[in-house]
Write a structure and sequence with these properties.
Number of domains: 1
Number of helices: 6
Order of helices and strands: HEEHHHEEEHEEEH
Structural class: alpha/beta
Mean pLDDT: 91
Number of strands: 8
Oligomer: single chain
Strand content: 15-25%
Helix content: 25-40%
Length: 161
């Protein structure tokens, strides 16, 4: 795993440790950084093959995470957050100004923020909360969370640089 990580073929996304009085999952999440390599290794040659495969959601999540980390300003730290009670944030970005952004990734045209996402973002004091979806338009999900296309969130991050 160290070799694959060193060759930048896989990303080990570390767990965020915070003293929030909850039992946290501490082992890192592992993603194949290039979704094309992932699809090739699985023998998925067409878009229909990918979309009908059980890996489609995880592939989309890895693709989104890679692109958001690449778009984030220099000095941004990235983690995921999960408690044993079920609060989970797919990507937690701490920007150079120290603000936390909580990001959930959903491969659905009608995404919604899970209760565990909202709880985790609240526990950590995230100043921005997003659910990235494959659609083309942003829309509010709650008073604190916005559903947003990947390209829109990338542009927001790039504008901070």
């Amino acid at each position: 795993m160290d070799l694959l990580s060193g060759l930048m073929l896989v990303r080990r996304l570390p767990a965020y440790f915070a003293d929030v009085g909850k039992r946290l999952i501490k082992s890192p999440k592992v993603y194949i950084r290039d979704s094309g390599v992932l699809h090739s290794l699985l023998g998925l040659g067409t878009l229909d093959d990918v979309l009908s495969h059980p890996v489609a959601g995880a592939s989309w999540e890895g693709f989104v995470i890679e692109n958001l980390i690449a778009a984030a300003p220099f000095g941004t730290d990235a983690w995921f957050y999960r408690t044993r009670a079920g609060a989970e944030i797919d990507l937690l970005l701490q920007l150079p100004d120290r603000w936390l952004w909580a990001i959930e990734v959903k491969r659905s045209m009608a995404p919604r923020a899970a209760r565990g996402f909202e709880l985790g973002a609240s526990d950590l004091g995230a100043v921005e909360q997003f659910v990235v979806h494959p659609g083309r338009e942003p829309f509010p999900l709650s008073g604190t969370t916005t559903a947003i296309p990947l390209t829109d969130l990338m542009e927001r991050l790039e504008a901070l640089a």
